[in-house]
Amino acid sequence: MAQKIEQNELAWRGNSPVSTVFDDVYYSADNGLEETDHVFLHGIGAPDVWMGQDHYVIAETGFGTGLNFLATWRAFKASGATGRLTFISVEGFPLTEGALRSAHETFPEVSIYSGQLCDAWPPAADGFHPRIFEDGRVTLILLFGDAAKTLPRLNAQVDAWFLDGFAPAKNPAMWSDEILDQVARLSRPGTRLATFTAAGFVRRGLQERGFDIIKAPGYGRKRERLIGEAKLPAPLSNTGRTQLPEWATLPKQAEGPFVVVGAGIAGRSVAYALARRGKKVTLIQSPVSPCASAVPSAIIAPRFILDTQSHADFFTSAYAFAIAHSAFAPHWATIKGVNLLGKNKADRERHAKLAAQLGWSADWLTWDGETLNLPRGGTVKTSGVLKALAGNIEVRTFHVDELEQTDDGWRLNNFSSGEHIDAAHVVIATGVEASILPDSLIWSEIRPNRGQVEILDAKDAADLPSTSISFGGYLTAEIDGLRTLGSTFDKLAEIGAQDYQVSAKSRATIETQFSNATGLKLPNNAYVESWAGVRATTADHLPFVGALYCSKQISAQYAPLAKDAKTTGLRPAEPLDGISILTGLGSKGFQYGPLLGEFLAASLCDDPLPLPADQIPSLHPLRQKIRAIIRGT
After folding, report:
1. I need a surface site. Which of 368, 468, 479, 572 has the fewest CB within 10 A?
2. pTM of the model
C-alpha cells in the first residue's frame, strides 16, 4: 500500500511561514510573490521562454507552499500563451490543506488560483498526483516522497528547473549529488535553471553536469543567486534512473488523428486526455455491444491493499485524481462520503492497519473502530461523467467487425454496410469486446465478469443509511431519487446474450449479501428495476494500458526467459505502429479510467508521465505474455 508521508504544519516568523521540519522560511518576509518573480520566473526568462511553444515543462525541487506554482500559473495565463504548461514538483513533507490555505492568505493576487489548488490538494500519500487546471491547459504533477527516491521514478523532459529546496545548510539532502544527477538526467540541451542559492558546491555540481552557470543579483537581503542553461547532453544522463524490464516499453509517439474504439469510461478518458492535448479524436461507440460503464451510478472508493508494491500507490493516486477531476465535479450525489464496512473481525483489523499506515488527515479518512470512512469519496452519476468527458469530441456510432493494418495506420471495417474508418492511431478500449483484434495481436487474457445491480426508489428505501456504503457489495447515495445496490461478480467462460439479462437469482444474492453485511432488510416495494452488464477483468485484477505488439515476435524474442527468467540483453520490445489499448478496469472503471487515460495520452504525446516508472510493468499489456513465457505455458 502507499507509504505514510509525514505532513508539515506551519509556524510563523513575522510575516514568513516557517517549516517546522527544517526551521527555515518558505518565502521572503518582504514579498514572496516578488521573490518568486525575480528569482525563478525572470531567472528562466519567463514569459518569453514559453511563448510560441506547444508545451512547456517546468520542474521544481520543493513544492513548499506552492507559491512558485501559483505565480507561474498566473504569469502563464497573463502572458496569453496559446500552448500548455506542465509544472512538476517534488515534496517530501507536504503541508496540510489548512496550512496551505493559511500560507496563501497573504497574497490575494493569486487567490483565484490558490482556491483551485487547495480544493484539488491530494492526501498525504506516497506517489505521483497529477492535477489539471484551466480546461486542461495547465497540469501540475506533485511527486510526494523523498526526492532522491522519487525523482528517479519520473519519466519527463524538462525545459526549466526551479531549484527551491530549503537552504543547503538547513536541508543538505535536497542539494546532494543524487538530486543533481536527476536534474541532469531529466534535462536537455537548452534547459534553463534558476535557484535562490549561490553556494559554491551547488554551482560546481551543476557545471560538472553540463550546465553553464552564472551568478545574478539576488532578492532582498540575499546578494546573489544562480541561473544557468544546459549546454551539452548530461554526462550522467542515466544515473539513478529506475530500470525497467526490457519488454516494458511505451507506445510510439503519435500525432494522430486518433480513433478511440469504445465509448465507456476507458475510451472517454483516453479521448478526453488526447483532446485536451490538442489532438483530433473520434470516439466510436457500438450500436450493439452493451457498455459496462452504463451502470446507473458508481461509488468512488479506493482499493486499499496492505502491500508495498508500486501498484499500491496507483490505487490511491487514481482515487484522489478521480475525486479532483473536473468531469466528476457537477455529478456527485448531494450526500458525500463512503463508509467501508468490515465484514468480520479480520476485515476490521485490516481496516485499522490501513488507517494507521496511511496516516491520512481526517478530511480524507477516519477510523472509528468499526467503519473506515472516506469523506471525499461518494457516488457519481455515471451518465453525467461520461458526457462531460466526451465534451466536444466527435462521437460516431459504428460497429467494428474487423481491425486491419494499412500502410498509413489502421482501418476499422463494418462488413454489413461496407463502410470503414481510417486512423493514424487507434486506441482499443472495448472492454470484453476484444474480438476485433487480429489473431497476431492476441497478447493477454481478458476475463468477462457479469454483474447485476438493483435500482431502488430512495423514498421507499428511506430507512437505509443515506451515505454510500461499501461491504464487498455497495449501496450508493441518492441521485435523481434513485439508489443503486450491487453487485454480483459472476465469472464467465464466454459471453452470451443471457449474461446481459437480469435474474431473480442475482437479486437474491445481492439481498443476502447486503443483509449479512449490514443487518438490514430491503423493503420489497423499494425495487424499481434491475440492470446487468459484463465487466472486463484480468487475472491479477490490474488493468492493461499501453502499446500492442506482434505476439509471434515477442514469443521468439523473449523465449530465453523460459530457461532463465533473469536473462537480459534481449532488446527492448518493439511496439506496433499506430495502436494501443486500455482495458481490464473491472468494477473500478470510474476510478482507474481517468488516470490511465492521462497516462496513455501522455505516453503517445511524449509528455511527462503522470505515473511512476516502476508502475509501468504492473500495468503493461505484455506482462501476462511474459509470465507465460517464463512458466513455459
Report:
1. 368
2. 0.94
Q: Which residues of 27-40 are buried (b: 16+ CB within 10 A; e: fewer)?
A: bbbebbbebbbbbb
Q: Cα–Cα distance between 371 and 66 in angstroms, integer?
A: 34
**Which residues are CB-contacts of 345 (< 8 A; sequence separation ≥ 6)?**
none
Residue 426 · residue 259 · CB < 8 Å = yes
How does residue 12 score in pLDDT terms, banded at 50, 70 and 90? confident
Distances (CA, A) of 464 to 117, 223, 456, 512: 36, 66, 11, 15
CATH fold group of domain 10-230:
Rossmann fold (3.40.50)
CA dihedral 316, 572, 540, 325 (to 10 degrees): 30
Pairing state of beta strands 579-583 and 544-547?
antiparallel
Q: Which residue is associated with the grid cell 460497429? A: 399
User: With 80 as the cut, is the pLDDT of residue 62 above it?
Assistant: yes
C-alpha–C-alpha distance, residues 546 and 323, integer Å: 24
How many of the other CB atoms lie within 10 Å of CB of 289?
A: 19
pLDDT tens per residue, range 162-207 = 998 767 777 788 899 999 999 999 999 999 999 999 899 999 999 9
The terminus-to-terminus CA distance of the chain in angstroms comes to 30
Helix axes 97-104, 67-78, angle to 10 degrees: 60
pLDDT score recorded for residue 234 = 59
**Class in CATH terms, 334-379+446-537:** alpha beta
How far apart, in whole angstroms, are the C-alpha atoms of residue 96 and residue 606? 32
Do 584 and 569 meet the contact criterion of CB atoms below 8 Å apart?
no
Half-sphere exposure of 230 (CA within 13 A, CB side): 25
What φ, ψ does residue 198 adopt, rounded to 5°?
A: -125, 20
Q: In whole angstroms, what is the distance from residue 369 CA to residue 384 CA?
A: 35
Domain 258-292+386-442+541-631 sits in which CATH superfamily?
FAD/NAD(P)-binding domain (3.50.50.60)
